[in-house]
Amino acid sequence: MKIIDFHTHIYPEKIAEKAVESVGEFYGIPMDGKGTAKALIEESRKCGITNHVVHSVAVTASRVEAINDYIASQCEEYSEFYGFGTMHADFENKIEEIERTRKMGLMGVKIHPDTQKFNMDDKRMYELYDYLRENKIPLLIHCGDYRYDFSHPRRLKKILHDFPGLVAIGAHFGGWSMCDYAYEYLENENCFVDTSSSYWMLGLKRARELIRLYGAERVVFGTDFPMWSVSEELKKFFDMELTDEENRLILCDNALRILNKEV
């Protein structure tokens, strides 16, 4: 069985150290990994993770194209990668850029409203969301930070209602530092959630409970590399002692369906 990590960040060698430090400062959490594609692959091959959805965040519109080019180049170099492009509310030609990323082989879009400093339901993003819905292109969204309102799960709920059929994944159980609160908004919505950056706050018992509340068919595995060690996050996942069927859905099948790959 494939094991697909649906949430990882990678950075070019020359800026990786600085980028990782910046992310650690934003969250106030010591970072684990080096943040490079090479480091991710080396650790993953040792622990049995077979594939990763990789992405990076454009904190300004001027960085969108360069980051998308970089992610595409790493997907060409490493067959284990599925690339997601970035987008920013201030970027003018959103549809043209996503069409360009598709031609380069990228498979989805990742946004991080808190670091990008725009509300996820900003109307400037609606043309993009409609395009993603029509073309069944998945959207991975960082969700839920008690310090900000940009990524509040109620905004994801609004997007889901405005764009029924959009393939959306709410990162961190839909609410990075407010997972239980997020469930109140997303319980009955048509979206996925990922498990990344959750065990440190929830603990394994509550994480397992949330998986079963959402239903394993709505959950994908993620590590949030380089914030955490991919091997340690995988071990914690197995320590929850889910059923074989739940493991298969979360580690592999749900991700393949989202990516329009054969299960």
Q: Low-confidence runs (pLDDT<50, min 5 residues)?
A: none
| Inertia-based shape | globular
Mean pLDDT: 95
Q: What is the percent of helical residues? A: 40-55%
Q: Which value, in Å, is the CA radius of gyration? A: 17 Å
Tell me the span between the first and last alpha carbons: 10 Å
Secondary structure class reads alpha/beta
Order of helices and strands: EHHEHEHEHHEHEHEHHEHH
- Strand share of the residues? 5-15%
Count every helix, treating DSSP H or I runs of 4 or more residues as helices.
12
Biggest β-sheet, characterized?
8 strands, parallel
Q: Got a strand count?
A: 8
- Sequence of strands across the biggest β-sheet: 1-2-3-4-5-6-7-8
List its salient traits:
alpha/beta; 12 helices; 8 strands; 12% strand
Report on the structure:
With 263 residues, this protein is an alpha/beta fold. It is 46% helix and 12% strand. The protein is built from twelve helices and eight strands. An eight-stranded parallel sheet has the order 1-2-3-4-5-6-7-8. Helix 8 links the parallel strand 6 and strand 7. The protein is globular. The protein starts with a strand and ends in a 5-residue tail after the last helix. The mean pLDDT is 95.
Write the layout of secondary structure elements.
Elements: E1 4-9, H1 13-27, H2 37-47, E2 51-55, H3 64-77, E3 81-86, H4 94-103, E4 108-111, H5 113-116, H6 126-134, E5 139-141, H7 153-162, E6 168-170, H8 179-186, E7 192-194, H9 199-202, H10 204-214, E8 219-220, H11 230-239, H12 244-258
Parallel strand pairs: 1-2, 2-3, 3-4, 4-5, 5-6, 6-7, 7-8
Helix pairs in contact: 7-8
